[in-house]
Amino acid sequence: MLSTMNMKLHILGCGDAFGSGGRNQSGYLVEAREKLFLLDCGPTTLLALKRAGFDPRRLDAILLSHLHGDHFGGIAFFFIEYLYLRPRVDPLVIAGPPGTEAKVRALFQVMYGGGSENKAIPPTRFVILQPDEPTDLNGITVAPFRVPHQSDAISLGLKVSYDGKQILFTGDSLWTESFVEHARGVDLFLCECSFFREQPGMHVNYQTLTTNRDRLHCKQLVLTHLGEEMLLHRNELAGVIAEDGMVIEI
Ligand SMILES: [Zn+2]
Ligand SMILES: [Zn+2]
User: Fold this and answer.
1) By C-alpha distance, which of 159, 164, 187, 225 is closest to 18?
2) How far is the CA of 107 from the centre of ligand 1 (A)?
3) Rounded CA gap, 62 and 15, in Å?
4) How far apart are CA 188 and CA 120, in angstroms?
5) In whole angstroms, what is the distance from residue 234 CA to residue 216 CA?
6) CA neighbor of 10 nearest in space, from 175, 135, 137, 167
7) Considering every ligand atom, which ligand is closest to the CA of 16?
8) Mean pLDDT per segment of 10 residues, for the chain of length 250 residues?
9) Beta strands in 59-121 (DSSP E)
10) Confidence (pLDDT) at 12
């Protein structure tokens, strides 16, 4: 049977950790038949989700690429939403690299915990994503793979399959050959591109991406996680560049 609705990706936040260009931090909402889930959840994600007109209770899962604040720091706001404003019945699935549960709980205690007792979180099911171990999340298949971004913790690229569609998301990463392999045939490749020419830290820059563009055999390529230097060259960029509020048909 054909789907009644195409899958859509709502760009809730395509900025970097610094809010460069006034862009929200990482948050990408996948709206699919019977499922609503996030790729990453930066601090600005709940407000952007509401601005896009979605009821946060509809969210089935949050998939985390890595545990930097601009990618997971917004979860505490979803927790207080579910505790005080819109209680949810089914548990929220939070899937991320090893250490996710401890970090999310610690974040929530720091932000909203009070006394000596740990403040309870709303119904949540934590799932650990291990590199190269595909995982089923209530019908959403996630194939995580390790990417070069942190030396002291695991950062993941995520290949997500649902309802016959595939999305590849780099999370934050230096360019790696594994993007070429994983991008083959995917419907959407959401690739971080923090810098234009500079190379501070473990991120993709536009020059490297351009050099490899012809090797990426994906149906759509969207560049995201744009830093200040990248934005300065906005008029020189080819292809689709993410903007907050953009909706992409997959
Ligand atoms: Zn980041
Ligand atoms: Zn990062």
Assistant:
1) 225
2) 17
3) 18
4) 37
5) 22
6) 167
7) 1
8) 76 97 98 97 98 98 98 98 96 98 97 86 98 97 98 97 97 98 98 94 96 98 97 95 98
9) 61-63, 92-96
10) 98
Is residue 76 within 8 A of residue 44, CB to CB? The reply is no
Confidence (pTM):
0.96
Tokens of residue 124, six digits: 């949540």
- Tell me the chain's radius of gyration from C-alpha atoms: 17
Helix, strand and coil in the chain, % to nearest 5: 25, 30, 45
163 a catalytic residue: no
The helix (run of H) or strand (run of E) holding residue 179 is helix 178-183
CA of 102 to the centre of ligand 2 (A): 18
- Tell me the ligand closest to 193's alpha carbon: 1
What single string gives the DSSP state of each residue in 24-59? PPSEEEEEETTEEEEEEE-TTHHHHHHHTT--GGG-
* SS3 (DSSP) at 176: coil
CA 68 to ligand 1 centroid distance, Å: 7
pLDDT for the residue numbered 36 = 98
Residue 64 contacts residue 97 (beta carbons within 8 Å): yes
* 172 touches 192 (CB < 8 A): yes
Catalytic residue among 16, 40, 60, 70: 70
Give the residue among 250, 37, 219 at the shortest CA–CA distance from 12.
37
Secondary structure letter of residue 195 according to DSSP: B
Predicted confidence at residue 117, as pLDDT, reads 78
Q: Give the pLDDT score at 2.
A: 53
